[in-house]
Amino acid sequence: MLKINLAISDKYPAIQYFLCNYVKDELGCNIISDFSLSEAGIVRSSCKEKIDAIITDLSYGNDETQIYGVSKIRAIQRAAPEAKVILYVEYDNLSILKKAISYGADAIVSKYDPVSEMKKALCEIFSKKRNSAYLSKFISSILENDVEKTSRLTAKEWEIIRLYSMGLSLSNIAKKQNRAVSTVATQKYNAMKKLNVNTNSELIQYACMNNII
């Protein structure tokens, strides 16, 4: 049993209802009622009773009173510094996942995972032995696949990606490296294929999100 005060916020009411009942039945968690995922709402709830953890998605919308995207993590940290943050996501965007980890999410579980992963995540992050974010099987597979892809690139391919993402043209890169433009173009193409990016803008975004430039 995990005797904690848990708040749950999800854009899908059915998922929120199911999660509330699941963690209550499986772990005995106390579910905080009337919870609103705005900074003011978090503060109001934490004034009534301590919030030990918050499960939330990364939904996006137009309601200015609500918090969206990975900025939710920072907002929760400001409003309830001691609360653990568990992201329950339906996205598999690598850059968003990496940013969520860097922002300090305590756990990330995918909605494509078995629901038992949420139970495991809660138990893991409240274990005194754990000092890093818990990543579910589905999320781990996405990140491991990225490591596998990047390990295939040669040093020259990495350098071309770096220079191209900094704004150099292929001809400028070729001149800088004293190589043929066709050779540089081929290596750029091979690098993009290995990274599974299809456009130049996706390549530059990948470089920015992974601190290549």
> What helical percentage do the residues reach?
40-55%
Biggest β-sheet description: 6 strands, parallel
Q: Give the spatial strand order of the biggest sheet.
A: 2-1-3-4-5-6
Poorly predicted runs of 5 or more residues: none
Q: How many DSSP H or I helices?
A: 10
Which architecture of the largest domain would the CATH scheme give at its second level?
3-Layer(aba) Sandwich
Find the CATH topology of the largest domain.
Rossmann fold
What is the assigned CATH homologous superfamily of the largest domain?
A: Response regulator
In percent, how much strand structure appears in the residues? 5-15%
Cα-atom Rg, whole angstroms?
21 Å
* General shape: elongated
What is the terminal separation in angstroms? Answer: 47 Å
Q: SSE order in H/E notation?
A: EHEHEHEHEHEHHHHH
Protein name: Response regulator transcription factor
Organism: Mixta tenebrionis
Keywords: DNA-binding
GO molecular function, one term: DNA binding
